[in-house]
Amino acid sequence: MIVFKTILKILNKIKGMLILYTIMLLSITLINQTGSNQTNFEETKPSIAIINNDKGNYLTDNFINYLNEHTKIKNVKEEKLDDALFYRDISYIIYIPANFHEDMLKEITPSLEYKSNNDSSSSYTEMLVNKYFKTLLIYKDYYKGKELVDKVNETLDSDINIKLTTNLDTSKINSMNTYFNFLNYAFLAGCVYCISMILSSIKEENVYKRTIISSFNQKRYNKIVLLSTAIVIFLMWLFYMILSTILFKDLMFSTNGLLYIFNSLIFSFCALTIGNLIGNFTTKKEAIGGIVNVLAVGSSFLCGCFVPMQYMPSYVLKIARILPTYYYVINNETIKVIENINLETIKPLITNSLIVIIFSTIFILLTNYISKKKQVIN
Known about the structure:
Largest sheet: 4 strands, mixed
Oligomer: single chain
Order of helices and strands: HHEHEHEHEHHHHHHHHHH
Structural class: mainly alpha
Radius of gyration: 33 Å
Number of helices: 15
Helix content: 55-70%
Strand content: under 5%
């Protein structure tokens, strides 16, 4: 109990750093928690201008009506069209020549002049024009007059039924994924820093000598220290899980949420072993801060916590494989898209979790080796 109280006093002195890392975690999550789940499509209407030299014809009028439904046709004086295009008041200008309706019925490709600013809106307008012409070419040999117009309009107005193949709330789950990815930084910067500072404090020369000459059993003392640091990490992990439940209460008890919790628990154990390794490696508090910052920031950048993996070069991701953070983040990205639990979907999660556990085992062995070496030296 005395050892645990001492550890709590040490934590109280460095609580400012823990608060800072938690604020950073919350800030990144809230920034990404914008927008709503997109389940529908709304057509964007580009602004265009039309110069019609084939007025009074049913086919040309129908073509313009079609464009009017899918674009915003602006009335711009002909001499000011180029300026409007330059200043992006419009993105597309269509020049309809005289006898245009005859060309549509006779030629494979109707003659049509246009100007554009080559942006996405102009490309969309061009796609609309080509869609109309292709539909007309299908029916012009079989229908005439009003019947042709009706058939073209019927085809163009046909609705396409879109069925959602996922029930996941993609907006919220993306925010939750960001939270758990950034949790890597909070664990390594916060938890590892705490464990390292605790071990550094109790292994200071004067403190260490007083412990050795006391009647306290050394093995029992080491076990209490290890158990106490494990409890500290568990409490930190529990705090972050409660925080995630507050932020994502609708998702945390879903299949995806529970998998995120399990994955983060395994990584918190890995963070504990890293903290013990650093704490046994050096007792210099100034060095610990530098090591932890390099470790936390470096692994977060390399392994896709700060920058999504899809935007990172392949050679960087190959380097990242030597770090346990990589497998933790890969699991998070896999969990993000899981809808059904079966052997096929959880197999990569189990594999990556085992790799993280192997890393943890290696860190424990290295810690024991360093600890024994230092005892021999002393």
